[in-house]
TrEMBL record:
Enzyme Commission code: 3.4.-.-
Family: Belongs to the peptidase C69 family.
Highest taxon above the source species: Bacteria
Signal peptide: 1-22
Record protein name field: Dipeptidase
Catalytic activity: an L-aminoacyl-L-amino acid + H2O = 2 an L-alpha-amino acid
Single GO molecular function: cysteine-type exopeptidase activity
Record-level GO BP terms: proteolysis
Alphabetized InterPro entries for the sequence: Peptidase_C69 (IPR005322)
Top-tier EC class: hydrolase
Pfam family, one: Peptidase_C69
Length: 546
């Protein structure tokens, strides 16, 4: 997501305390996955985004029909473009042909934002999904739209994938009144993984590899014209020209990519100084070949990262408090005695609207092969529920209009997950254990169930594709709604168990009672020794028992 008018990386705005949208995306090629599927991921991180699932049914349009374009972040009308004759069904960020598109904003150079353009980044995504059968076709649709109608947004990195290929495309406008954009798209090798997190990541462009690299014809010449680059074409770096690194871009953005890469490449620690802000160090590659293959659960868990296992681990400093909370409330920067400090920005963050892992499987019919693993709120404490991309309706718990950011709803997944998460933020080290049990119960159950659902759907599909789609819609909607109801029960349990800082005694999943039927006296766990020592350092003389 994005915030207009940001110079350099959008994460720089985050670190300076401005409100902005900042997202993380991971990509997995089909030969880098356990089962041969292509996967991408996306956390739509925003303090003003409500977690719901968008849906556009397939449609046929009359000649001369027009499509209203509104800025995705604000709803501001931007203009109208001609509608195409036929559009495809879209659920969330995935369409019926197993095409998925996500993004993260890097902002780039302020002077390249074109406020006269019609196509903003969000409209590009969802219009392209309605008009594309493959990732390459989506790239063509998106670049044609900005060429014809202008690009309204700042710099963006897009993940664009289908059942066979995964691409990273980066795009920047050409300034006020200048239609089009400069862009480059690179296919991620099938045996590799990639990531992006609010900083332009494409360095040198393999201009001669026409099969795996697409680009605007003026991508280099425009940079020369603007004075962003001097030198030979082979030395040109898209990132250096259009979104130069600064401290915030490394620490708040590239560090997230590094934390993902190092899970699957033991040599990535050589970039530790780079992501901590050393601009003199060599940049990380766009993609790496992992030392083992990734499953859907691996990608889901990667979206829950807080730098665990690194010296940026958010549970290891005093900011985590007595319950080791891996979150820091905004603003991202703070000042003490004239010095400015930064809170870490991890992949998992509290202000997420929704988080997804689109999975595309080329050995199945499109109606069955595409699964949008969909969760809401903080990725760390969400449940990724399977929604088949052929679904013709949206689960009630994700429905647009079932609550909003200003109106609570007991049947909204977004509000149920926020309710649980906001309890857990205050006693994280205790509550996360209970949350993980239910999270694993549900996600582990899906892992076992999906093969049977696929098989049943294939049998139906062979007889009547419409019946298969009806079945998959039923499964997707009932499963998500049941998971939301289960999360509500979890919230009730946590409130009872941890009320007033105590911990209820349990046995076999039931809270204990005394011999007379009344609640047993709870445990009083207090704090750990480290936290008590910090209290003594700050107020020991006043609190010491004489």
């Amino acid at each position: 997501m994005r915030k207009k008018g940001i110079l350099f990386a959008v994460c720089a705005a985050l670190l300076s305390g401005a409100e902005a949208f900042a997202c993380t995306g991971l990509l997995v090629g089909k030969k880098a996955s356990v089962d041969g599927s292509v996967m991408i991921s996306y956390a739509a991180d925003s303090h003003t985004l409500y977690g719901e699932m968008y849906h556009w049914p397939a449609a046929t349009w009359p000649k001369g029909a027009m499509l209203d374009i509104k800025e995705w972040d604000t709803g501001k009308p931007l203009g109208r473009i001609p509608q195409v004759e036929r559009t495809y069904s879209v659920v969330g960020n995935m369409n019926e042909h197993q095409v998925a598109i996500t993004e993260s904003t890097f902002g780039g150079r302020r002077e390249l934002v074109d406020t006269t353009g019609i196509m903003d980044y969000g409209s590009l995504i969802y219009v392209a999904l309605q008009r594309s059968k493959t990732a390459r076709e989506a790239i063509d649709v998106m670049t044609t739209l900005v060429r014809e109608y202008g690009y309204y947004s700042g710099g963006e990195t897009f993940s664009i994938a289908d059942k066979n290929e995964a691409w990273v495309m980066e795009m920047v406008g050409k300034g006020p009144g200048n239609k089009g954009a400069v862009w480059v798209a690179i296919r991620i090798p099938d045996d590799c993984v990639a990531a992006h997190a609010n900083q332009s990541r494409i360095q040198q462009i393999p201009f001669d590899d026409k099969e795996n690299c697409l680009y605007a014809p003026d991508v280099v010449s425009f940079a020369r014209e603007k004075g962003y680059f001097k030198g030979k074409d082979e030395d040109f770096s898209f990132a250096k020209a259009y979104c130069p690194y600064d401290f915030s871009a490394l620490r708040g953005c590239e560090a997230r990519v590094w934390s993902f890469f190092r899970k699957y490449d033991k040599t990535m620690d050589r970039y530790a100084d780079f992501v901590k802000g050393d601009l003199s160090k060599e940049p990380m590659p766009l993609y790496i070949k992992p030392d083992r293959k990734l499953s859907v659960r691996d990608v889901q868990n990667a979206m829950r990262d807080h730098y665990e296992g690194t010296d940026l681990d958010m549970t290891k400093d005093a900011g985590a408090g007595p319950y080791k909370v891996p979150y820091r409330w905004r603003p991202m920067n703070f000042e003490v005695d004239g010095k400015t400090y930064v809170n870490e920005r991890a992949i998992a963050t509290q202000q997420t609207g929704f988080v997804i892992v689109p999975q595309m499987r080329n050995w199945l019919p499109d109606a069955i092969g595409g699964i949008l693993w969909f969760g809401v709120d903080d990725a760390d404490m969400t449940v990724f529920n399977p929604v088949y991309a052929s679904s013709t309706s949206v689960p009630e718990c994700y429905r647009v209009g079932n609550g909003d950011l200003l109106n609570f709803s007991w049947t909204s997944a977004f509000w149920m997950h926020n309710w649980v998460a906001n309890m857990a933020y205050h006693k994280y080290s205790f509550m996360i254990e209970d949350i993980r049990k239910v999270q694993n119960e549900l996600e582990g159950g899906y892992e076992k169930t999906i093969p049977a659902i696929d098989k049943a759907a294939q049998e139906l599909y062979a007889k009547d594709p419409a019946e298969a789609i009806k079945f998959l819609t039923w499964f997707s909607t009932t499963t998500a709604d049941a998971a939301t109801a289960r999360w509500k029960k979890l919230g009730e349990y946590l409130l009872v168990k941890y009320i007033d800082g105590n911990v209820k005694k349990e046995a076999d999943g039931q809270f204990k009672r005394n011999p007379y039927g009344l609640p047993a006296s709870p445990d009083f766990p207090g704090y750990d020794e480290e936290y008590y020592r910090s209290i003594v350092r700050s107020a020991g003389e006043r609190l010491e028992v004489k």
